[in-house]
C-alpha cells in the first residue's frame, strides 16, 4: 500500500516531528510511505516531498501563513492564541505523490498549507489524525473550556466576537461543506477523541483513538551524572525540568507551574527549563536554575530529560503531551494534571504523579513525592518500559497499518475484475 502523509510545519519539531517519526516507522515495517510537507528541513530523506525548497516557494508559503493568521486581526478583542482558517493553500491533489497514493493521511495542516476546499477533491480513502482541536473547531486550536464547537461556533470567545455569524461560524461551515463523507478521524488521546465525538462536525463520523508516538530509539536513558556533566549542570539538589516550544501559550499552564514553585523549598531543587520563556520571571522565584532555550536536536533533549529527577508538564489542555512521553522514554518520571491528553500517558504512582486538576499545590505535592520516593528507580524503569511497550513509533505504525487495511478493504475486487488487472489497489 502507498500512503501519503500531509504534514504542515517543520519536521524538526512540534506535531510535524511526531508525524515524521510515524512515517519512518511505517517504512521500517514495509509500508510505502511518503511525506508531503511545507517543511524546509527534509533530513535529506528522498521519501519527503517539500513544497518549500526555493526562495519563491518560501515567500509564497510565508505569505499564505501570514494571510491565514491576519484574518483574525479584524477582531480587535481577540486573544493571543493561534487562530487558523484553512482558507488558503496549494492544491496537493495535483501532486505526483497524491496520484500515486492509495491512502491520504492528514496530520497538522495549518499555517496556510492546506485549503479545506481541496479536501472535497479527494477520491481515495482519507484519514485525519487530529493533533490538536482545530479539525473540529471554527478556528481555535484549543477551545480552553468553550463548548461552542459542539453547536456550530459563532460568538467566538477567542475572537472576542459577539456575533453568531462571525469568522468562526464561517470556518466551521466551510469545513462541513468540503469534508469527504468517507473520512476516518483519529484522536491521539482518549480525551481528544471524546471531544471530537461531541463536536458538531464529527459527531456522525467514525472517530477512534490511536495514541501519538515517540521514537524510543531516540529517547532512551543516559546516566544522570554523565548527562549533568555533559550539560554543565553542577548541583547536589534535585533537578526539576519543565519546558515547551512556547511557555506563553495559555493552554500550556506555565502560570500554574510558577504558582506551584511557591510550595517548594529552593534549597532542595534546581530548576531547568527549555523553550521560550521570560527569564525575568524566573529570576524572581529565588531558585537556582539553568535555562537552555530552544533545543532542536534529540541528543540535547535526551541529555536534559535524563539529567532531571522530575519532568513537570502543567498543561491545562493538551492533545497528547509528546514531551511527557519523551521524558519517560529517558527514564524520568513525570508530574502532570490528571486531565486531557497527559492522563493517558502517566500511571499514577507507578511511573509518575497525576495531580488534581488544576491545583498548583497538588502539582507541587507531585514533585515532592516523585523526587523523594523510595521507589524512584522502579518508577524510572516503569516509565521507560511503558513508552517502549505502548507508545513507540513502530507499535503505533502497526495500529495505523491495520486501519489502512480496513479503509482499503471496500476497494478490493474480485480476481477477474478489470480494476485488479489494472493494478489500482494491491490485494492483501
Give an overview in words.
The protein has 428 residues and is an alpha/beta fold. It folds into two domains: 2-213 and 393-422, Glycogen Phosphorylase B (Rossmann fold, 3-Layer(aba) Sandwich); 224-391, Glycogen Phosphorylase B (Rossmann fold). Helix content is 34%, strand content 15%. The strands form two sheets. A seven-stranded parallel sheet has the order 3-2-1-4-5-6-7. Strands 10-9-8-11-12-13 form a six-stranded parallel sheet, with helices on both faces. Helix 1 packs across helix 13 (393-408), helix 6 (224-231) crosses helix 9 and helix 10 (322-329) crosses helix 12. The model is unreliable at 414-428 (pLDDT under 50).
Oligomeric status:
single chain
Count up the domains.
2
Judged by helices, strands and strand pairing, the structural class is: alpha/beta
Shape: globular
CATH architecture of the largest domain: 3-Layer(aba) Sandwich
Overall mean confidence score, pLDDT: 93
Number of strands: 13
Q: Can you summarize the main beta sheet?
A: 7 strands, parallel
Order of helices and strands: EHEEHHEEHEHEHEHEHEHEHEEHHHH
Give the uncertain stretches in residue-range form: 414-428
**Binned strand content:** 15-25%
Keywords: Transferase
Organism: Halopseudomonas xinjiangensis
GO molecular function, one term: glycosyltransferase activity
Protein name: Glycosyltransferase involved in cell wall bisynthesis
